[in-house]
């Protein structure tokens, strides 16, 4: 195995834990609600140091053919269940990171297992359709009973894609085509010979100098277009050519919110004014503004519904498209199916991108003019994956059956109240606690963040961070109050070790 970076070695040394013990919690804290997964462990279990000998050996073997430097842990998915993730050495951790917010209804969910065994799934897997050319006869039905069943209000069409970056890139393409189509005078207007010839040499007017505006600390993906709107960390962008696109300021709020209402309102107004100035003055005209309801990778940064309503008003006023990136916030995590439902917009976004918990990807839209005026303009071989669309349909069925969006809202309230108590007890370790009323989409800052994350495995919890100093919670929709009790006790144990 190649040598690890010094930082990785430091983290691994911190992660070593005593062996063969089960993490217990105080019985009176346990909620009485029936578990969604009856076969889940009652608590995390630690059997070896982390990483254990089997995980080390498997990682070394993998390193011969695959870059392992970003590995969190090699996982035994056959032994992972519900909210618990298992490694190769018998360690079973409460997972509140969930594959970077991407597992909605638990590991080895029985309903999804049945979906995976269905004839529809077999057909989709072994005869994978090139959707643009050869969609299956039931593709419309699959979309209507799944992806489109939960479409955001006012958006009744979808372009399916492979991943979150792909979803955003295709949304950007749609925005640019719409912008130029409007300039020409409508979809019926033909391209000029100059446009056709100049685009082949990447020159204007066929390849126009247009832009997508994003926000400071935003994350929208790692492909070329999406990366030009990503502003979270330099390591994501270094050495990659980028488009000349504007970055607007995102509000930097002070917490607790109720103690800084006037200052935060002024900060949001400043950001809106600067956004509008950039739209009016940027040298490459802005075709669309893209924003996350909660900046996730960039540090779990929030803004008020009023800020987003103001942003929508600005985009409408300047005839700029409004793209809401719900890749990480969508599918119930904030206590609403779509996080932008918290905003009470008068008019819906022009496009909403999705992936992660949906297990598929794409963007929703409502305006027919956002569909390109000619075939093959928005196209690739796969254009998504029916197998993943079927899984999303199964996820939706589980969410509806168990009322998981409302459940997540209630569990989030319970968890946030517990974290507030801990923040009062340990104010130096839980700073800027945020996410109240946002389901389980909760975060806080801590001065020893990386050490906190490493020590979490030692108390049986898999947890993640964002930005420079934030601990972010991304539990599954099946996360319950008894899991919250375990997590709260575990957080206090970690703090006492720092």
Task: Describe the overall structure.
- There is one protein chain.
- This protein has 498 residues and is of the alpha/beta class.
- The chain has two domains: 53-108 and 405-496, Aspartate Aminotransferase, domain 1; 114-189 and 198-401, Aspartate Aminotransferase, domain 2 (3-Layer(aba) Sandwich), CATH 3.40.640.10.
- 37% of the residues lie in helices and 12% in strands.
- The chain has 16 helices and 16 strands.
- It has a seven-stranded mixed β-sheet, with helices on both faces.
- Strand 15 and strand 16 form a beta hairpin.
- Helix 6 (139-145) packs parallel to helix 13, helix 11 (261-281) packs parallel to helix 12 (305-317) and helix 14 packs parallel to helix 16.
- The longest helix has 22 residues, at 404-425.
- The protein is globular and about 70 Å long.
- The protein starts with 5 loop residues before the first helix and ends with a helix.
- The model is unreliable at 1-20 and 25-31 (pLDDT under 50).
- InterPro entries: 4NH2But_aminotransferase_euk, Aminotrans_3, PyrdxlP-dep_Trfase, PyrdxlP-dep_Trfase_major, PyrdxlP-dep_Trfase_small.
- Its EC number is 2.6.1.19.
- One of its GO terms (molecular function) is 4-aminobutyrate:2-oxoglutarate transaminase activity.
Question: SSE layout and pairings?
Answer:
Layout: H1 6-14, E1 21-22, E2 45-46, H2 53-63, E3 84-86, E4 92-95, H3 98-101, H4 110-116, H5 119-126, H6 139-145, E5 157-161, H7 164-184, H8 193-198, E6 211-215, H9 224-228, H10 234-237, E7 247-248, H11 261-281, E8 286-291, H12 305-317, E9 321-325, E10 351-354, E11 361-365, H13 386-402, H14 404-425, E12 431-434, E13 443-445, H15 449-458, E14 461-462, E15 464-466, E16 470-472, H16 481-497
Parallel strand pairs: 4-14, 6-7, 6-8, 8-9, 9-10
Antiparallel strand pairs: 1-2, 3-4, 5-11, 10-11, 12-13, 13-16, 15-16
Helix pairs in contact: 4-13, 6-13, 11-12, 14-16, 15-16
